[in-house]
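queue> pop job 88
queue> type: inverse folding (structure -> sequence)
queue> payload:
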């Protein structure tokens, strides 16, 4: 099928390449010529495992191309909207500028019978407000939220755990054809109305954020009682109604989705006169932000009361491993806070240094892990890349650092092993 994908960021670029990899003829469209140039050469403009392979294969096959010219959307049967919906500069609500601009730019190139499939995360009610413009062009609007996780985006796009399409049953049938491999293997395919499809997305992210803040709240209680939140998570996680996933206590969630989605949800609920229904999301946000400060306190504690002029190596800058995304990264926030206290902060990350440097040029960055921790007074794990969590042996670290203080912002290290090697180990919500 001929498809267009408008917006080639983390969502759109992966979607375009994934759709080409399952046999469609795809044009990816973005206003940023640098992004389009890279993608046209088959190069991913950001780090995402598996993306370079399907991008270059798609471009080489001739089924995948990229352009800044939206007129090239003409002739596609389905037009996916995958532009960003960031948090507004002066409030919690989502900024819909890019969604509106994409739809307006697309309108002249829609043919009767086309389908416009919104994938961007939007406040409930957005699709209804876009419908008249799309109807007037003789096309049909559906909402088809995306549940991909960065780091697993290719797999999540080609083989998702469910597909949700809000809108008419006929249009949903066309999307069944689009997602033919997943449909053929029996992936749950839910057809809903527009509002439900929009809400499914924000409800899912709100639930995940709440789960993380729940366990972080338990970590706060563990800290004043001497309990161990990692054991608590394991014990409650065996109840399959609760489940162990997303019960990782630590410095909390970040990224381009969870934080801004729960804020936009609160803002939208207030507009709808139902602010109290999701008032708990404010608490979820606050618990989350408190954990970053807690990690800073642990560093201060570990260093005997002050960090001024101490060398502190921050292991990680990305908001999570297998990503170079630093949007709302708790890891970088911890680094910036320590820098603000006068520490000599060195940040290392396997993929995210270039992005971090652009936003926080005041910090020192060292790409090589061992070079970064050389002579450190303390090290803090904030993004659980394998090379920090699994592959950094405490005995090896001891040969490099000046001090023997390790703060585990992700509860990813083995406390017994670090303590046995003579280190002061401080975790999040563990004795
Ligand atoms: C999230 C959702 O998981 C996806 O389902 C959704 O499609 C996506 O947002 C989106 O809206 O586009 P993502 O932002 O890639 O995906 O990241 P997650 O894997 O959800 O992790 C978010 C943050 O939570 C990370 O900072 C991670 O370190 C943190 N986290 C995760 C914890 O602190 N504890 C955990 O137990 C799990």
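queue> result:
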């Amino acid at each position: 099928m001929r498809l267009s994908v408008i917006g080639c960021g983390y969502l759109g670029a992966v979607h375009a390449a994934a759709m080409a990899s399952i046999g469609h003829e795809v044009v990816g469209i973005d206003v940023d010529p640098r992004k389009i140039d890279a993608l046209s050469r088959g190069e991913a403009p950001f780090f995402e495992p598996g993306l370079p392979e399907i991008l270059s294969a798609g471009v080489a096959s001739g089924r995948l191309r990229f352009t800044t010219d939206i007129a090239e959307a003409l002739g596609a049967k389905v037009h996916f909207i995958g532009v960003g919906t960031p948090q507004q500069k002066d409030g919690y609500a989502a900024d819909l500028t890019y969604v509106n601009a994409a739809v307006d730019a697309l309108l002249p190139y829609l043919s009767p019978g086309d389908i416009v499939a919104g994938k961007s995360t939007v406040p409930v009610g957005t699709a209804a407000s876009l419908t008249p413009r799309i109807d007037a062009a003789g096309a049909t609007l559906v909402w088809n939220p995306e549940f991909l996780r960065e780091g697993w985006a290719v797999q999540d796009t080609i083989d998702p755990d469910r597909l949700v399409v809000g809108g008419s049953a006929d249009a949903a049938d066309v999307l069944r054809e689009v997602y033919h491999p997943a449909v053929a293997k029996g992936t749950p395919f839910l057809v809903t109305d527009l509002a439900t499809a929009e809400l499914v997305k924000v409800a899912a992210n709100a639930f995940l954020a709440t789960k993380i803040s729940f366990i972080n709240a338990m970590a706060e209680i563990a800290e004043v009682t001497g309990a161990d939140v990692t054991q608590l998570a394991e014990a409650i996680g065996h109840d399959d109604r609760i489940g162990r996933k997303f019960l990782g206590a630590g410095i909390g969630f970040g990224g381009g989705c969870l934080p801004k989605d729960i804020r936009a949800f609160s803002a939208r609920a207030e507009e709808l006169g139902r602010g109290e229904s999701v008032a708990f999301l404010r608490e979820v946000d606050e618990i989350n932000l408190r954990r970053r400060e807690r990690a800073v306190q642990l560093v201060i504690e570990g260093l005997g009361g002050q960090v001024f002029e101490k060398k502190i190596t921050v292991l990680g800058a990305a908001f999570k491993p297998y990503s170079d995304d630093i949007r709302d990264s708790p890891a970088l926030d911890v680094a910036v806070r320590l820098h603000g206290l006068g520490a000599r902060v060195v940040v290392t990350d396997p993929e995210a240094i270039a992005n971090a440097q652009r936003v926080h040029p005041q910090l020192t960055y060292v790409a090589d892990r061992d070079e970064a921790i050389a002579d450190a007074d303390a090290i803090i794990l904030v993004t659980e890349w394998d090379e920090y969590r699994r592959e950094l042996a405490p005995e090896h670290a001891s040969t490099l650092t000046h001090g023997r203080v390790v703060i585990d912002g992700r509860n990813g290290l083995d406390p017994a092993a670090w303590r046995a090697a003579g280190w002061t180990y401080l975790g999040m919500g563990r004795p």
